[in-house]
Fold this sequence. Notes:
26 helices, 743 residues, 6-stranded antiparallel sheet, 18% strand, 7-stranded mixed sheet
Amino acid sequence: MDYSEVSGTERVNLKTNGMTCVACSLAIEKAVRKLDGVSEVNANFSNNVVSVLYDPSRIGIDDLSGAIRKAGYDVLEDDPDALAEREKLNAARIKKELAVSIIFTIPLSVMAMGPMLGIDMPFSSSPKVYSVVQLVLCMPVLIAGKRFYTKGYHALAAGTPTMDTLIALGTTAAVVYGLYATFQIFAGNPHSVHSLVYDSAAVIITLVSVGKYAESRSKVKTTDAVRGLMDLAPLTANVMRDGKEITIPADEICAEDIVVIRPGERIPADGRIIEGSSSVDESMLTGESMPVSRRSGDAVYGGTMNINGGLKMVAEKIGKDTVLFQIVRMIQDAQGTKAPVARIADRVAAVFVPAVMIIAAVSCVIWLLSGRSVEFSVLVLISVLVISCPCALGLATPLAITVGTGKAAEYGILFKNASALERSGKITSVVLDKTGTITEGKPKVTDIVSEIEERELMAVAAAAEMNSEHPLGRAIVSYAEGNRISILPSSDFISEPGGGVRCTVNGKHTAVGNADFIGSEPNDPEHVFKMSSEGKTVVFVSIDGEYAGLIAISDSIRDSTVSGISSLIKMGIKPIMVTGDAEGTARSIAAVAGIEDVRAKALPEDKLRIIKELQVSGENVAMVGDGINDAPALTQSDLGMAIGSGTDIAIGAADVILMNDDVRSIPAAMDIGKATLGNVKQNLFLAFCYNAVCIPIAAGVPYVLGMEMIPEMPMLAAAAMSLSSISVVANALRLRGFRPKSI
Ligand code: ADP
Ligand code: MG
């Protein structure tokens, strides 16, 4: 299930600390992209992950971390627990800073506004005391917000100004202006008391901190969700060592260990049951709430719950190789990559911050030149800087994508990356494989029509299929095993996806597969016709080029198929079935499933071609499959979806994994994709609109139209800015309540 390796490149997700906005992520991307051997880099500030596609033969992870550190950000080790812990500490710190800011900002604002509202302040008779008290109240707020300054000015010095830069510049301007006014008062000019704007700086810091706090809370929630998954892995396990059962920490289990699991215990690793049977709750992996029964020979997964039976299993995959860990990794990856729509926001932000600084400076100068007071012009400067903080813009996409992938995971739908989530909202037709996708992929042998002795036919066929991963092959092997037919040794095994298998058994060339593959005609076409029309797959056996018999195999349609397909049709998405199976079998299965468009006898390259043709005709095509023969089509399609119980190759080639093997997950994934994409667009619209309206207001357009300047303008700007962030956050969180119609 390791999808992250493309030849010569590897993906690594580096957790960082200190990214606060789009401009930060752009700065990191710039620094890393410069490096030799890096082909792709995505920095996502909403979860502090930098995802890099690099060539390990040319550059090491240390070099990547080094570049990020040099750009002024921390790189942290990759451990979900530590990460969650750090997010919590971060949230706690922000909360404390926010509390300090609020405690001092309230009396400061009351003092500053009191005289305007006609309330008599104890110090207002003495401008000197009045101004000094305000300065003293403002100091703790500035200290609580010191991060804005260190980060903001650091970024400015590095030539990549961020939203922190805007806040730092805006509030510094206010404080400097306030100090100047205080100086004037002490120099004997009591009228300067009206120019005291310390309160603006304090209110700005406080309001921006409110937004930061909301954001940190949502980060804690998502890392908590990931850690919740990690917590499913039990801490200890009982293993057999030297014939005795001992309890060891779960991370000390080795592959091949025999693990004893009692009822009510969680399974500590991925492996295979060798003794006992039980109901196992796999809902954490599949979203399916009904426990499934598992017995000797079945695979079980770490983190799932053994409900009522005693089990012994052989551990096969442990720690980072388990499915559970892969899921955690995938969720982190999905959050670490960027959806194409996010790039719009990035591109805008890259020019946005410098543009705002220029607009602010230019409007200030214009007002000064047009004869307005210094106070007025400085207030305009501060307002523009503060109102344009692009935090809402930066939050718009990552937050919706994070909520959307989480939502999908709840239904057992795992998106490997953010762009897949976005693409899933735009699908117009879905190509589905038959065996293992529309059907359960647990076929059973139903009829045998043999030219030779029946048991001999099955012994030969099973020998040929021993090495096959195909569901049909497994059906033949398990039939032989079930009927105590001893399976003969074989050699020279060759599998031809979409056709069948070939090998040498008893020194004879044996082939098992479909009619074209075998190349010899069956003696009894009537039989074949009847079985196919019942939806059975007919597999032929030839020995030394001679037709030897046929085996009919029936595979029941998944319970979820009919309703899944009808949901797709209702959504206006066209289902198409492709299969390597014969026409008759394909038609009869398609009729039950409710699919009209059927393409039978499709080899892997035909599946690929069908996808390409659909794409050329303007369709956005999703491909759903489970087998090796589906892998090329999965890769070619706009959205490859693999059935969770399918082959590793299909899972590796797909963008989405349907953990619960449920056909209804297909429309559900598209529903969630659409909802997420819609949400991102709403968020971007909210953020853009807000800036389009507010910047001109702050720059002084209303005064041109004859309205009065209010000294509280910078504060209103800060309030408006926070409001826009909060509305974007609230809108993204709305997605949490989304329910796909099909499930
Ligand atoms: P689908 O596209 O429906 O998943 P495949 O492409 O995997 O089906 O297989 C197409 C056909 O090729 C099967 O219906 C069967 O006739 C034949 N076939 C493929 N693999 C095998 C095998 N291992 N043993 C026997 N027949 C096979
Ligand atoms: Mg298949």
